[in-house]
Structures are given as structure tokens and as C-alpha cells.
Design a protein that fits this description.
- The chain is mainly alpha-helical.
- Belongs to the archaeal/bacterial/fungal opsin family.
- It comes from Acrodontium crateriforme.
């Protein structure tokens, strides 16, 4: 029995979409490469999920985010390896080189769907590591979505107007790099040396790789300079470094970091002391809340001394008021639980 290596994706799915044939398209070599990247993404997803099982459920947030990145990427690369998720677009620059000669080129829009989902998750990994405030996190993610959408629209435009969208995307990228390189880095360093190092390594890797994506876009979808097979290798290497390698580096950096230090104290249903009643002195009339003649308790409704409640030494209709001498602190009563009664003379 003879076993032969066959990749029939191009024969099965063809090079025609909506009756239009792509003159500049991937070959079997490009499809094989996409399948190889798919396999790496799947293995990385399984590895990240396996690592998640070694952590308590409330400490798995970064494992789940990172595994989701490679999971989505594996689906996108499966589609591209199958020669699906693309559309033919007329090229602005017609080249004489036979590998890029023709009137239209296949554009893998599924790649941008992948980025639209995964790049916000990558940024979420980084910005949560830095302990950035949620308004900043959400705004940076919005700018990231602008970057991806403008890249997609530019790739689908045949005329020179595509470069206008390219400029918008680059402007969005520069803002993201600024936040990562300055604001987020300062936040991460303030949380401790280990957090600062984890963010530095992952943030530097992401910043470097993301600056290469516009170059790839310019020589592929934008300028039609390199072939779709070379495009597959260029983007594939970037995605492998930006996703599985990034994820492994990030989870290694987080191995001894409690998410609670980053403001991510997540409770689990069977966690001990997950819900602790607030028994602070003066809360809802508990502790030092003996009732006066009119039923008014000192510390009622968490009232501080003399603030929105009955203050120390205030007497209700000839009754004694429970006071704690010298207590002036807000919301907290220090000292022994013995109640001292102060008598007022009318």
C-alpha cells in the first residue's frame, strides 16, 4: 500500500468566488504552510488550557484569554489553508513578475476577522497585566478595532484611496504603542518588579511585531509586491510570534503573580470566605448600638460620630446616649467592646 501526501484544498474549493477568478492566488505550498500554522495554533490552545487546570479557577483568566487567542487563530488558518474566506480584488499595481502578474488578487478577509477578535484579547492580556483602569482598557480596544477595520477596508479597495485607510490604521497603531510603551509600563512597574518584567517582555514583543504588520500589508494587499504564498509566510510568522510565543511568555511571567494584585480578585463558588459580612463597628446599628429611650441607636445606619446620625453625647428625651469617649474616626470604633455611658444633665 502506498501512502501519498495530498492537499486537495485548492482543487476542492477552487480559485473562483462569485464567478470571478483570482489571477494572483496561493499555490499548494501556501496552503500547506497555512495548515502547518493551524496545527501549531491548535497545539498551543491545548497547552494553554492544560496549564489552566494547574491553577485555581479564579486564577485562570489569563490562561483563558490566551487560549482563546490561539483557538480563534486556528479556525482562521484552517479557513485559509482550505482556500476559503477570501475574495478577489482588482490590484492597483500590475506587476510583470509572474508570481504577482494579473488583474486581481485574492484577499483573505478571514484574516481580518481573526484580528478583529484576537487583537483586543492580546491587548486585554497586556493591559490587565499592567492593572490599567477600565476606561483606558476599553478605549484602547476601540482604537484597536478601528485599526483592524481600516486595514480590511483598505485591502478591499482597488484604487489609491486604500492608502488613506492605511494612514488611519497606522495612526491608531501609534496610539496603541504609546499607551503600551508609556502609560501601561508605568502602571505595571508600580505593581512590583515581577509584574513590571512580565509586562516589559510581552509588551516589547507585541510592540515590535505590530510595527511589522503595516509593512506586510504594504507589500501584500497594498502594493502587490510579493506573492500570496510569500504573504502566507510573512503573516504566518508574525502571527506565530504574536500569539503562541506571546502567550507562552505571558503565562510564564504570570506563574507566581496573584491576579488579585492586579485588581482581579475573582471569587469562586466554593472559595472559603468568598462572602464575608461587613461587621464593622457602627454598621447598621451593630456594636455600640444600644437603644436610647426613643429607640435611637448610636451608630445607626453606619453613621459616624455627629454625621447623618446620632452623635456621641446627644441625648434623646432624657435618655442616656451610648458614647465612646474620644472616638472621632469615621466608620471605625477602636478600643474594647465595653460601652461607656455618658449622662447628660438637662
Amino acid at each position: 500500500m502506498t501512502f501519498t501526501k495530498r492537499n486537495d484544498a485548492l482543487n476542492v474549493n477552487g480559485d473562483t468566488v462569485n464567478g470571478v477568478r483570482a489571477d494572483i492566488a496561493i499555490t499548494t505550498h501556501g496552503s500547506d504552510w497555512y495548515w502547518a500554522v493551524t496545527a501549531v495554533m491548535i497545539v498551543a490552545t491545548m497547552a494553554f488550557m492544560g496549564l489552566a487546570t494547574t491553577k485555581p479557577r479564579q486564577h485562570r483568566i489569563f490562561h483563558y484569554i490566551t487560549a482563546s487567542i490561539t483557538l480563534v487563530a486556528s479556525i482562521a488558518y484552517f479557513s485559509m489553508g482550505s482556500n476559503l474566506g477570501w475574495t478577489p480584488i482588482d490590484v492597483e499595481f500590475q506587476r510583470s513578475d509572474h508570481v504577482v502578474s494579473g488583474f486581481n488578487r485574492e484577499i483573505f478577509y478571514v484574516r481580518y476577522i481573526d484580528w478583529f477578535i484576537t487583537t483586543p484579547l492580546l491587548l486585554l492580556d497586556l493591559l490587565l497585566t499592567a492593572g490599567m483602569p477600565w476606561p483606558t482598557v476599553m478605549y484602547v480596544i476601540l482604537i484597536d478595532e478601528v485599526m483592524i477595520v481600516t486595514g480590511l477596508v483598505g485591502a478591499l479597495v482597488s484604487s489609491s484611496y486604500k492608502w488613506g485607510y492605511f494612514v488611519f490604521g497606522c495612526a491608531a497603531l501609534f496610539y496603541i504603542i504609546y499607551v503600551l510603551g508609556f502609560e501601561a509600563r508605568k502602571h505595571a512597574n508600580a505593581l512590583g518588579k515581577d509584574v513590571g518584567q512580565a509586562f516589559l517582555y510581552c509588551g516589547a514583543l507585541t510592540t515590535f511585531l505590530w510595527t511589522l504588520y503595516p509593512i506586510a500589508w504594504g507589500v501584500c494587499e497594498g502594493g502587490n509586491i510579493i506573492s500570496p504564498d510569500s504573504e502566507a509566510v510573512f503573516y504566518g510568522i508574525l502571527d506565530l510570534l504574536a500569539k503562541p510565543v506571546f502567550g507562552a511568555l505571558l503565562l510564564f511571567g504570570h506563574r507566581n503573580i496573584d491576579p488579585a494584585r492586579l485588581g482581579l480578585h475573582i471569587h469562586d463558588y466554593d472559595e472559603k470566605d468568598a462572602f464575608v459580612s461587613d461587621k464593622r463597628p457602627g454598621h447598621n446599628g451593630v456594636n455600640n448600638g444600644l437603644t436610647t429611650g426613643n429607640g435611637v441607636a448610636n451608630g445607626h445606619n453606619s453613621a459616624t460620630n455627629g454625621h447623618n446620625g446620632v452623635g456621641n453625647g446627644v441625648v434623646s428625651s432624657g435618655a442616656d446616649a451610648n458614647t465612646v469617649p474620644g472616638n472621632t474616626d469615621s466608620n471605625t470604633i477602636h478600643g474594647p467592646s465595653t460601652t461607656t455611658t455618658a449622662h447628660a444633665t438637662v
